Inverse folding.
DNA sequence: CTGTTGATCTGCT
DNA sequence: GCAGATCAACAGT
């Protein structure tokens, strides 16, 4: 399984969000391998996107989204939840990232069950804050290089056709809901719908 | 410095 | 379907 190259993230954020569907997120913890297929993403851009963290300029929290592509952007929200993004943008964009919303577990399911305190497979990683908890992703992973074989990276996965990707409004935000930058596939059985 | 809001999930009704 | 948990960024004083 090949790790996605830096150039993969060097495209328009919305394109990368679609391309990431079907790819595999891999996490290494103490010799354990935990992985899952990415089945839902959301694109967040910059000046044309009022819902993005970057709208309004760089801050201490979002500076990773302005940095080099192919890195992880982790943030803390609602007082108790972490979410992961992959920094991705084209050359003419100053900032952008793809939120990983949902996974289908592949390896390390027992580990995830312990983290999430449930045995329900379909409930392990089917939400942005759930998957960070299941994969033990915290602020320590802020800025991790996803193109190196480190403790967190993304590899090639299943081939998903454009026709199998569904676009819709992004979830949980009130701004820019006219932008259909939420992408998911119904190919896998574990999706909740 | 203070108050409000939020890219969420859980548990209860 | 709805409130609550709980904190970092931001706008306003």
């Amino acid at each position: 399984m090949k790790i996605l190259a830096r150039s993969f993230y060097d495209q328009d954020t919305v394109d990368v969000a679609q391309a990431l569907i079907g790819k595999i997120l891999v996490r290494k913890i103490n010799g354990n391998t935990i992985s899952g297929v990415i089945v839902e993403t959301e694109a967040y851009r910059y000046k044309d996107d009022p819902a993005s963290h970057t709208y309004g300029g760089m801050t201490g929290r979002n500076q990773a989204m302005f940095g080099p592509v192919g890195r992880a952007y982790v943030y803390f929200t609602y007082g108790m939840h972490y979410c992961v993004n992959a920094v991705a943008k084209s050359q003419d964009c100053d900032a952008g990232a793809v939120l990983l919303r949902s996974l289908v577990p592949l390896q390390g399911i027992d580990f995830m069950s312990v983290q999430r305190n449930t045995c329900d497979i379909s409930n392990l990683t089917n939400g942005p804050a759930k998957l960070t908890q299941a994969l033990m992703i915290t602020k320590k992973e802020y800025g991790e290089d996803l193109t190196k074989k480190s403790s967190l990276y993304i590899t090639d996965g299943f081939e998903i056709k454009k026709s199998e990707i569904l676009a819709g409004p992004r979830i949980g935000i009130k701004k820019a809901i006219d932008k259909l930058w939420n992408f998911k596939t119904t190919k896998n059985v574990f999706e909740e719908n």
Summary: The domain at 6-185 of chain A is CATH 3.10.300.10 (3-methyladenine DNA Glycosylase; Chain A). The beta strands of chain A are 24-29, 32-44, 72-77, 81-87, 97-107, 152-155, 165-168, 182-185. Residues 53, 56, 59-62, 75-80 of chain A lie near DNA strand C (CB under 10 Å from a C1').
